[in-house]
Amino acid sequence: MKQDFIATEYVLQSVKTGKQFEDTGWTLDAPGETDPTLVRAIYKKKQIEVKDDSYGIYKFSDWLPVNKVLKGSCAPVTYKSEGLAKYLGLENLYITFSGYWPEKGAMFRTCSFKETESYSVCARMNSDMKKILVVASAGNTARAFARVCSDNNIPLLLCVPEDNLDALWFGEHIHDCVKLIATKSGSDYFDAIHLSNLACQVDGFIAEGGAKNVARRDGMGTTVLSAVTKIGRIPDYYFQAVGSGTGAIAAWEANLRFIEDGRFGKNKMKLMVSQNHPFIPIHNAWKADSRPMLHYDDNEARKHVEEMIAKVLSNRRPPYPIVGGLYDAMKDAGGEVLLANNTELKEAAKIFEDIEGNDIHPAAAVAVATLIKETKATHIEKDAVVMLNITGGGEERYKKEHNLHYLSPKHVFDINPDLEEVKKVLKY
């Protein structure tokens, strides 16, 4: 642990009412409030001071709700694009890369920006928490939490759809403090969430919290902290593919902190978020100007998940309607929900690798595909400052350079397991 690291000072605030309160350790909801709302961290230090790279992601700890430094982290890396910028005719395209790209200084061993969440969430945990953390995931989040918890000896239970288990690869063995359970083939992320909710009803287990966890959002927000402190100003546009939209909410919140900081401009970057057709529930709600999510038949949703390539974007219950969620973020900042199909994302991935020099995840390719379409349609000014959030990459290279280990599930449940079955399996 860095000897000069001091736990970050902050309070929590209800986005709906503005009421502030202390973080009692794992506060996910505003105390005494019944209307659904996110809570937000309000940091004592209004002007961020970035530490050196030896701190990893904790170089941004002024704006992270953390009590300690965990080993093994890396901060997102932002650089000014030349190749893709020239291809698109953009003068100020900045790429924020979270993945494996040693030449750029990006050393994410899980190759995903989900590491930003896990290093923040797990560093929020204090020594008094004697609970096993429960995380539901479509793949990348599980891989990131497994890596962080294994390296730092933090008990963890992962809930993942069986069809996504190939995402649980690792360059080093995973410690047995990490356990995995799954929902059977044909299930999706929503089913894994249901399983995790049952697990949290078992004594000794606690929900990580997803978008409600301020540490998850502010960890993701380090992509924007990286970009803004590199560029020297708040971008005009923010491009990212979304499943839950939590990353875009985090980007908006980071943007608001920079406005309060006062040194990086007063503008709000337009949130240009994208989905992988045909799984497009956020797009459909936004286009209908509906705060509530529209009805999505379970069987149709599972069929669409099977068809899409970027399966990590398959969240059926995103934090879109909740106060402080994606609907509010986009209404406040402006922006659009864009679409890319499988063919377009594959073409975009090839373009990025050929021009920029590294492979990227399918979800990141969705964002690249929509940036390409928006610039070709001349919707983006040539001199606009654009932040492209590449949320994962370098996986093909990492796998070639490392001997891989896979995590196997302790138990595979039916799509709708009962609580007693879950209790029986979790008695270990």
Output the structural class: alpha/beta
Largest sheet: 6 strands, mixed
Note the total helix count: 14
Classify the fold: give the CATH topology of the domain at 77-109 and 215-399: Rossmann fold
The CATH architecture of the domain at 77-109 and 215-399 is 3-Layer(aba) Sandwich
Poorly predicted runs are none
Oligomer: single chain
How many strand elements? 18
Name of the top-level CATH class of the domain at 77-109 and 215-399: Alpha Beta
Q: What is the overall silhouette?
A: globular
First-to-last CA distance: 31 Å
Radius of gyration: 20 Å
Helical fraction:
25-40%
Key words describing this protein structure:
428 residues, alpha/beta, Rossmann fold, six-stranded mixed β-sheet, 14 helices, 18 strands, 18% strand
Question: Short description, anyone?
Answer:
The chain has 428 residues and is α/β, with parallel strands linked by helices.
Describe this structure in words.
α3 (about 140-150) links the parallel β8 and β9. The longest helix is centred in the middle third of the chain and has 16 residues, at about 245-260. The model has no long low-confidence stretch (mean pLDDT about 95). The protein has a domain at about 75-110 and about 215-400: Rossmann fold (3-Layer(aba) Sandwich), CATH 3.40.50.1100. It has helices at about 85-90, 115-125, 140-150, 190-200, 215-220, 220-230, 245-260, 280-285, 300-305, 325-335, 340-355, 360-375, 395-400, 420-425, and strands spanning about 10-15, 20, 40-45, 75-80, 90-95, 100, 105, 130-135, 155-160, 170, 180-185, 205, 235-240, 270-275, 335-340, 385-390, 405, 410-415. It is α/β, with parallel strands linked by helices and about 425 residues long.
